[in-house]
Design a protein that fits this description.
- By secondary structure, the chain is mainly alpha-helical.
- About 50% of the residues lie in helices and about 10% in strands.
- It has a 3-stranded antiparallel beta sheet, with no helix packed on it. A 3-stranded antiparallel beta sheet has the order 8-9-10. A two-stranded antiparallel sheet has the order 4-5.
- The protein is elongated, with a radius of gyration of 30 Å.
Length: about 325
Amino acid sequence: MEDIETDSVIRLHRSEERAFWSWAVIEVLRLTGLRVEELVELTHTSIRRYLPPGGEMTVLLQEAPSKSDRERLIPASPELASVLAAVIRRVRGPDGTLPLISRFDQLERHWGSKLPHLFQVRFGGAPRVLPTSTARLLLQYTASRANLTDVDGTPLEFTPHDLRRIFATETVNSGLPIHIAQHLLGHLSLDTTQGYVAVYPEQVIRNYRTFIDKRRMSRPAHEYRDPTAEEWAEFENHFTLRRVALGTCHRPYGTPCIHEHACVRCPMLQVDPNQMPRLQEIEAKTLERIDEARQKTWLGEVAALEESLRHIREKKAQATQIGERLQAGADLTDQ
């Protein structure tokens, strides 16, 4: 077919092939959180059916060991089952089965066994497992064709791992416990899963309130009472006393000051960027005292002052970072 406007030849079959596999790659990655290497390793035997006693049949996607060398099962949503069915219909041969083909592993540098791979395409008439590099190019191609841009107008680029992070964020923010998301993603550490999840303040507050409500329902009602005037005043005073010369003290309610109000050494102090001149003054005086202590060979005093100097400079760096973030937020608001 020829494009009348550009006089270029349009290969409809190739365009349709690319559009289908772009859709299939995006949907499977988005709905499973698989790594791209795990995606191309999927076979027809990866799809399992689970029928619990007296329950409803569930489709499971069995993922072979990959990065973490741990096999895992991913429950397939109706949307995912529909995508997998479309892939099977497309790949299935005239005899109703999927062709058995071997996949070349780029990392291990060897050909695998012949298997009914789901993501197999045809190059020159022969079926071949979709390479991971091609899967990445399909994502970039789709973003380019959709003309997706950032807020500043620069083109957006997507990688398979971006869709893995989206899957993690959507599942956890929808109420799935994060330790369950850890197993679905195949992470060995919960900290890794937390790094994938983007949790926003309003979601934290909403989930925390839900947790408190559920916990109160399971405890005796007489354990909950209104605070007395003295208790409420003590609680309010705690937050009044949080304001200090260099910023705000964030030590937990009901806990004493462990640094005897030597705030510059305390990790609970969040420095006010406007107090940078005060920090510079404290740093200069500390340097003067270190010089004096060295001249008089007060070595114990020197060690203590040098430790204080280290904390002072850490607080200066913290104040600078906070100030830069506030300025960036103000600039964004003004635009």
